[in-house]
Amino acid sequence: MPGYSPAPVDRAPARPAGRPAPARRAPRGTRLERWAPLVLVAPAVLIVLLLRLWPLLLGVNFSFTGDGDRNGTAVGFDNYVALFGDPLFRTALRNVGLLVLLLPVAVAIPGLLATFIHLKVPGHRVYRGVYFFPAVLSPVIVGTIFNLLLAFDGPVNALLGLADLGPVDWLGNPGVAIFTVVGVHVWATFGMALVVFLAGFSTLDSSLLDAAKVDGASLLQTLRHVIVPGLSRTIQFVFVTTMIGMLTSMFGLLYVMTSGGPAGSTYLPEYYVWIQQGQLNQPALASAASTVLFLIMLVVGLAQIAVLRRTGKED
Amino acid sequence: MTGSRLTKWLAAVPMAALALATIYPLVFTANVAMKDRREYTLDRFAPAGALRWDNIARAWTSVGMSRYFLNSVVVVACSVAVLLLLGSMAGFALGRLRFRGSSAVFLGILAALFVPFQVIMVPLARIMASSGLIDTYPGLVLAYVAQFLPFTVFLMTSFYAAVPPEIVDAARIDGSTVYGVYWRIMLPLGAPALLSVGVLNALFCWNDVLISLLLMPSAEHRTLMVGVTALRGQYSADIPTFAAGVLIAAVPVLLVYLFLQRQIADGVTAGSTKG
Asked: CB B178 to CB A33 under 8 A?
């Protein structure tokens, strides 16, 4: 790519003789023109620097200062000690562990569904559009709708009653509520992963699938030997985006469905940050929780890079 | 695959059931929104006796939904306009004009993509408060732009990097300035990518609750999604009106989805397969 450097741009080949110069010849090499690339990126760079990267540094710095009476003074790791002493935050971290355990399920479901859609099960044309549709709804709307459906005297329990199964306190039982919220999150977002998987399938060499068919491979064999290796990049991408989604986009659901309850059982780090900042007015403690959340995300990201490198070597 | 036809038919059954489970909650909500309270108490599942719009009218007028709706429209429209302008400018410069430091700039913006809002929300709220931007429309627009700009720049850069360089060269030879190339050639050329990324950004902004909850505390500035969370307190005894409010917030998104499904999916999958 030749590109344009800030150096004076005057590489236009000589015009054939006899042709008039273009009527609107621009002033070449003016300062404004030379700096054009920088002028074009400057607004975006300024906004990203000032409102994304700078706050990140501020937040880390802020997490080492005190709240309330000790506002603004350096307190070392006190906030972090308080954080890990808080049972609510420990529950939040335990729930992150739970999410990591549930992650393979949340990736396998859309992966399998995409496989069947790609293999053209009856009705395959409809499923992609239908499955994807909850992904465009706001978590607030999804959570509110499920509040209606999952109320103790609500429709879902009425259905269970018809089958002689006792009512389940979906949102009021501390042992159940986190699974309910994660389940609703998966319900709302699996279509996103499905669409990504289908895009991956479209790059898969179809002759491999045909060869497997000719050789009489079973569906499981095809999955294991053709589809999973062929889609390794896509699978990793879905793993990381699903994990990030679970860590950062469940706020709306938690806010609407459980408010962190019952008994703090549905806390996640992102909700904890909000409560400390917005409700309890402990911004420094909230910053410490943010920093921990960022470290978790960093670990997820670095793990992804490590896996990518390793598979890159195998190729 | 031996017996693959049977496998496919067997798979189709749970898939159809799942499709039903995906659609039904919204159908349920729409149905409830059409019922009167007596109908709802008697049987939650039965179809509404008639198409009644009075719940929707009540939700629209009596709880400020119309105000919240307007707030959301204004904020989303401004945010998307700024995002597309700044995103395409930077994307053109990074994708088509190489300059000193361009890869460092690109990497920096890419890094910002991985900083979630929850991590920066405390200092951001302080910055907004100290610059007098909290609880103002420009403040919220600026926050949305900052939040979704890295993604927009990333997508526009990869779009413009795929544009043949001859197009720029030809325009330059004809005497156009770089700004002219951007405004008269690159902006129209980028229309499909801009539509895709614009629709996605509009959905992100429209659906957000955390950022607007944090930066727009006063009731008159509430956006629609924050308004929905406030609905329950006011209509806990009147589920049909409550459902009507939810429907009002969901309908614009559903319409956008019906007409622009393809563009949304394109935006979501961009960059997912090339690694």
From this structure: yes
Q: Which amino acid is at B141?
A: V
User: Is the Cβ of B167 closer than 8 Å to some Cβ of chain A?
Assistant: no
Give the gap in angstroms from C-alpha A180 to the nearest C-alpha of chain B.
Answer: 15
> CB distance B45–A155 less than 8 Å?
yes
| Complex confidence, ipTM | 0.89
Measure the N-to-C terminal CA separation of chain B; round to a whole number of Å.
30
The angle subtended at Cα B78 by Cα B90 and Cα A37, nearest 5°, is 15
CA distance B12 to chain A (A): 6
| Residue B228 to residue A53, Cβ atoms within 8 A | no
Q: Are B189 and B64 in contact (CB under 8 A)?
A: no
Closest CA–CA distance from residue B203 to any residue of chain A (Å): 7
Cβ-count burial of B197 within 10 angstroms (0-12 exposed, 13-18 middle, 19+ buried)?
buried
Q: Please tell me the predicted confidence (pLDDT) of residue B229.
A: 87
- Burial code (b: 16+ CB inside 10 Å, e: under 16) for A259-283 equals ebebebbbbbbbbbbbbbbbeeebb
Residue type, A254: L
Q: How big is chain B, counted in residues?
A: 275
Q: For residue A262, give the DSSP letter.
A: S
Task: Report the residue count for chain A.
Answer: 315
Query: For residue B232, which of A260, A265, A259 has the smallest C-alpha distance?
Result: A259
Look at A287 and B29 and tell me if their CB atoms are within 8 Å: no
Predicted TM-score (pTM) of this structure: 0.88
In this predicted structure, what is the pLDDT of residue A1? 36
CA distances B256 to B66, B112, B253, Å, are 19, 28, 5
User: Two tokens at B2?
Assistant: 């031996």
Q: Do B86 and A12 touch (CB under 8 A)?
A: no
Residue of A nearest to B163 (CA): A1
Least confidently predicted of A236-240, A305-309, B70-74, B222-226? A305-309
> Structure tokens of A18?
């006899």
Per the listing, tokens 């010849």 go with: A25
| Average pLDDT over chain A, rounded to an integer | 83
Of A4, A33, A213, the CB nearest to B1: A213
d(CA A166, CA A43): 59
Question: Which chain B residues are closer than 8 Å to A37 by Cβ?
Answer: 93, 97-99, 102, 178
Q: Which of residues 26-65 of A touch B (CB under 8 A)?
A: 26-27, 33, 36-38, 40-41, 43-45, 47-56, 58-59, 62
CA-wise closest residue to B108 among A39, A289, A50: A50
pLDDT, tens digit only, all 275 positions of chain B? 445 677 778 888 889 999 998 999 999 899 888 888 778 877 777 777 777 788 888 888 877 889 999 999 999 999 999 999 999 999 999 998 878 888 899 999 988 888 889 889 999 999 999 999 999 999 999 999 999 999 999 999 999 998 888 888 888 888 888 888 899 889 999 999 999 999 999 999 999 999 999 999 888 889 999 988 888 777 777 888 888 989 999 999 999 998 988 888 888 887 565 43
Does residue A104 have a pLDDT over 80? yes
